Protein backbone atom coordinates (compact mmCIF):
# COMPACT_ATOMS: atom_id res chain seq x y z
CA UNK A 1 0.00 0.00 0.00
CA UNK A 2 1.28 3.43 -0.93
CA UNK A 3 1.09 5.82 2.04
CA UNK A 4 0.71 9.50 1.10
CA UNK A 5 3.30 11.97 2.30
CA UNK A 6 2.63 15.04 4.42
CA UNK A 7 2.71 17.39 1.43
CA UNK A 8 0.17 15.28 -0.47
CA UNK A 9 -2.13 15.22 2.54
CA UNK A 10 -1.79 18.97 3.06
CA UNK A 11 -2.78 19.51 -0.58
CA UNK A 12 -5.84 17.34 0.02
CA UNK A 13 -6.81 19.51 2.99
CA UNK A 14 -6.39 22.61 0.84
CA UNK A 15 -8.59 21.05 -1.85
CA UNK A 16 -11.51 20.39 0.49
CA UNK A 17 -11.20 23.26 2.99
CA UNK A 18 -13.99 25.78 2.22
CA UNK A 19 -12.09 28.68 3.80
CA UNK A 20 -8.56 29.50 4.92
CA UNK A 21 -9.83 29.61 8.50
CA UNK A 22 -11.27 26.10 8.25
CA UNK A 23 -8.02 24.82 6.75
CA UNK A 24 -5.95 26.32 9.57
CA UNK A 25 -8.26 24.96 12.26
CA UNK A 26 -8.48 21.40 10.93
CA UNK A 27 -5.02 20.92 9.43
CA UNK A 28 -3.26 22.39 12.46
CA UNK A 29 -5.23 20.07 14.74
CA UNK A 30 -4.23 17.09 12.60
CA UNK A 31 -0.56 18.12 12.77
CA UNK A 32 -0.77 18.47 16.55
CA UNK A 33 -2.33 15.01 16.87
CA UNK A 34 0.56 13.62 14.81
CA UNK A 35 3.02 15.43 17.10
CA UNK A 36 1.46 13.73 20.11
CA UNK A 37 1.37 10.31 18.42
CA UNK A 38 4.95 10.66 17.25
CA UNK A 39 6.09 11.12 20.83
CA UNK A 40 4.09 8.14 22.02
CA UNK A 41 5.71 6.03 19.30
CA UNK A 42 9.13 6.47 20.96
CA UNK A 43 8.08 4.09 23.75
CA UNK A 44 10.06 0.84 23.37
CA UNK A 45 6.93 -1.33 23.32
CA UNK A 46 5.48 0.68 20.40
CA UNK A 47 8.44 0.82 18.02
CA UNK A 48 7.00 -2.06 15.98
CA UNK A 49 4.06 0.09 14.83
CA UNK A 50 4.04 1.52 11.30
CA UNK A 51 4.97 5.15 12.00
CA UNK A 52 4.24 6.24 8.42
CA UNK A 53 0.75 4.78 8.64
CA UNK A 54 0.15 6.47 11.99
CA UNK A 55 1.35 9.79 10.55
CA UNK A 56 -1.00 9.52 7.58
CA UNK A 57 -3.87 8.48 9.85
CA UNK A 58 -3.31 11.46 12.13
CA UNK A 59 -3.07 13.93 9.26
CA UNK A 60 -6.18 12.55 7.51
CA UNK A 61 -8.51 11.65 10.37
CA UNK A 62 -10.52 14.91 10.48
CA UNK A 63 -10.66 15.80 6.79
CA UNK A 64 -14.42 15.13 6.78
CA UNK A 65 -14.99 18.20 8.99
CA UNK A 66 -14.77 20.36 5.86
CA UNK A 67 -17.99 18.81 4.56
CA UNK A 68 -19.86 20.25 7.56
CA UNK A 69 -19.28 23.91 6.69
CA UNK A 70 -22.06 25.84 4.98
CA UNK A 71 -21.60 28.54 2.35
CA UNK A 72 -21.29 31.17 5.10
CA UNK A 73 -18.41 29.32 6.73
CA UNK A 74 -20.49 28.10 9.66
CA UNK A 75 -19.91 24.62 11.09
CA UNK A 76 -22.89 22.27 11.44
CA UNK A 77 -22.31 21.33 15.09
CA UNK A 78 -25.43 19.11 15.50
CA UNK A 79 -24.08 16.81 12.77
CA UNK A 80 -20.44 16.94 13.84
CA UNK A 81 -20.63 13.29 14.82
CA UNK A 82 -20.82 12.53 11.07
CA UNK A 83 -17.41 13.98 10.25
CA UNK A 84 -15.68 10.62 10.42
CA UNK A 85 -17.94 9.00 7.84
CA UNK A 86 -17.74 12.11 5.66
CA UNK A 87 -13.95 11.84 5.74
CA UNK A 88 -14.21 8.15 4.83
CA UNK A 89 -16.30 9.17 1.80
CA UNK A 90 -13.78 11.83 0.75
CA UNK A 91 -10.88 9.39 0.87
CA UNK A 92 -12.89 6.75 -0.98
CA UNK A 93 -13.64 9.27 -3.75
CA UNK A 94 -9.93 10.09 -3.90
CA UNK A 95 -9.04 6.43 -4.34
CA UNK A 96 -7.44 5.85 -0.93
CA UNK A 97 -7.51 2.27 0.42
CA UNK A 98 -9.82 1.17 3.24
CA UNK A 99 -6.85 0.98 5.61
CA UNK A 100 -6.50 4.78 5.42
CA UNK A 101 -10.23 5.51 5.20
CA UNK A 102 -10.83 3.77 8.53
CA UNK A 103 -8.75 6.39 10.36
CA UNK A 104 -11.55 8.83 9.54
CA UNK A 105 -14.58 6.67 10.32
CA UNK A 106 -13.16 4.85 13.36
CA UNK A 107 -11.59 7.54 15.57
CA UNK A 108 -14.53 9.37 17.19
CA UNK A 109 -14.49 9.37 20.99
CA UNK A 110 -13.09 6.07 22.22
CA UNK A 111 -15.14 4.19 19.62
CA UNK A 112 -18.77 4.34 18.57
CA UNK A 113 -20.78 1.12 18.72
CA UNK A 114 -24.03 0.15 17.06
CA UNK A 115 -25.64 0.34 20.51
CA UNK A 116 -24.32 3.90 21.01
CA UNK A 117 -25.85 4.96 17.71
CA UNK A 118 -29.26 3.39 18.26
CA UNK A 119 -29.62 4.29 21.95
CA UNK A 120 -28.56 7.91 21.43
CA UNK A 121 -30.32 8.38 18.10
CA UNK A 122 -27.09 9.49 16.42
CA UNK A 123 -27.30 10.51 12.73
CA UNK A 124 -25.14 7.60 11.55
CA UNK A 125 -25.85 4.27 9.86
CA UNK A 126 -26.03 1.71 12.72
CA UNK A 127 -22.68 -0.10 12.83
CA UNK A 128 -19.59 -0.46 14.99
CA UNK A 129 -17.07 2.32 14.34
CA UNK A 130 -14.37 1.09 16.68
CA UNK A 131 -10.60 1.28 16.19
CA UNK A 132 -9.19 -2.23 15.80
CA UNK A 133 -5.52 -2.17 14.78
CA UNK A 134 -2.83 -0.73 17.04
CA UNK A 135 -2.26 2.10 14.55
CA UNK A 136 -5.98 2.95 14.53
CA UNK A 137 -6.13 2.91 18.32
CA UNK A 138 -3.06 5.11 18.62
CA UNK A 139 -4.48 7.75 16.26
CA UNK A 140 -7.79 7.68 18.15
CA UNK A 141 -5.94 7.99 21.48
CA UNK A 142 -3.66 10.85 20.42
CA UNK A 143 -6.67 12.74 19.09
CA UNK A 144 -8.20 12.85 22.58
CA UNK A 145 -5.63 15.35 23.88
CA UNK A 146 -6.36 18.29 21.59
CA UNK A 147 -9.68 19.84 20.61
CA UNK A 148 -10.72 22.19 17.83
CA UNK A 149 -13.09 24.10 20.12
CA UNK A 150 -12.48 27.84 20.18
CA UNK A 151 -10.01 28.52 21.56
CA UNK A 152 -8.57 25.12 20.74
CA UNK A 153 -7.02 23.50 23.78
CA UNK A 154 -4.93 20.61 25.01
CA UNK A 155 -6.46 18.15 27.47
CA UNK A 156 -4.52 16.11 30.01
CA UNK A 157 -5.37 12.42 30.36
CA UNK A 158 -7.26 13.09 33.58
CA UNK A 159 -9.25 15.90 31.94
CA UNK A 160 -10.30 13.68 29.07
CA UNK A 161 -11.16 10.86 31.46
CA UNK A 162 -13.50 13.25 33.30
CA UNK A 163 -14.97 14.43 29.98
CA UNK A 164 -15.69 10.95 28.65
CA UNK A 165 -17.43 9.82 31.84
CA UNK A 166 -20.62 11.56 30.71
CA UNK A 167 -20.93 9.00 27.90
CA UNK A 168 -20.96 5.99 30.20
CA UNK A 169 -18.75 3.83 32.37
CA UNK A 170 -17.88 1.64 29.38
CA UNK A 171 -16.20 4.65 27.75
CA UNK A 172 -14.21 5.33 30.94
CA UNK A 173 -13.01 1.73 30.88
CA UNK A 174 -12.12 1.95 27.17
CA UNK A 175 -10.08 5.12 27.71
CA UNK A 176 -8.31 3.58 30.71
CA UNK A 177 -7.32 0.64 28.50
CA UNK A 178 -5.89 3.03 25.91
CA UNK A 179 -3.86 4.83 28.59
CA UNK A 180 -2.44 1.52 29.74
CA UNK A 181 -1.68 0.44 26.16
CA UNK A 182 0.00 3.61 24.92
CA UNK A 183 1.11 5.46 28.05
CA UNK A 184 0.81 9.09 29.10
CA UNK A 185 1.34 11.63 26.29
CA UNK A 186 4.01 14.28 26.59
CA UNK A 187 2.24 17.63 26.08
CA UNK A 188 5.25 19.85 26.73
CA UNK A 189 6.11 22.93 24.70
CA UNK A 190 7.66 21.40 21.59
CA UNK A 191 4.42 19.76 20.43
CA UNK A 192 3.50 21.78 17.30
CA UNK A 193 1.02 24.45 18.31
CA UNK A 194 1.56 24.06 22.05
CA UNK A 195 3.30 27.40 22.38
CA UNK A 196 0.10 29.30 21.54
CA UNK A 197 -2.39 27.09 23.38
CA UNK A 198 -2.80 26.41 27.09
CA UNK A 199 -3.81 23.15 28.69
CA UNK A 200 -7.42 23.68 29.73
CA UNK A 201 -10.49 21.89 30.94
CA UNK A 202 -12.63 23.78 28.45
CA UNK A 203 -15.40 21.74 26.88
CA UNK A 204 -14.08 19.41 24.19
CA UNK A 205 -15.82 18.42 21.00
CA UNK A 206 -16.06 14.65 20.61
CA UNK A 207 -13.38 13.69 18.06
Overview of the molecule:
By secondary structure, this protein is mainly α. The chain has one domain: Hypothetical protein af1432. It is built from nine helices and no strands. It has helices at residues 6-16, 20-40, 51-60, 83-93, 98-105, 114-120, 134-143, 157-164, 169-182. Helix 1 runs parallel beside helix 3. The longest helix has 21 residues, at 20-40.
- Cα radius of gyration in angstroms: 16 Å
Provide the structure class: mainly alpha
Q: How many beta strands in the DSSP annotation? A: 0
Name given to the CATH architecture: Orthogonal Bundle
State the distance separating the first and last CA atoms. Answer: 26 Å
Order of helices and strands: HHHHHHHHH
* CATH level-1 class: Mainly Alpha
Largest sheet: none
Percentage of residues in strands: under 5%
Q: How many domain regions?
A: 1
The 3D shape can be described as globular
Instruction: Tell me the helix content.
Output: 40-55%
Mean pLDDT: 90
Summed up, the helix count is 9
Unreliable stretches: 195-207
Any idea of the CATH topology?
Answer: Hypothetical protein af1432
In brief, what are we looking at here?
It is built from 9 helices and no strands. The protein has helices at 6-16, 20-40, 51-60, 83-93, 98-105, 114-120, 134-143, 157-164, 169-182. Helix 3 packs across helix 5 and helix 4 (83-93) runs antiparallel to helix 5.
Set down the secondary structure blueprint.
Layout: H1 6-16, H2 20-40, H3 51-60, H4 83-93, H5 98-105, H6 114-120, H7 134-143, H8 157-164, H9 169-182
Helix pairs in contact: 1-2, 1-3, 2-3, 2-7, 3-5, 3-7, 4-5, 8-9
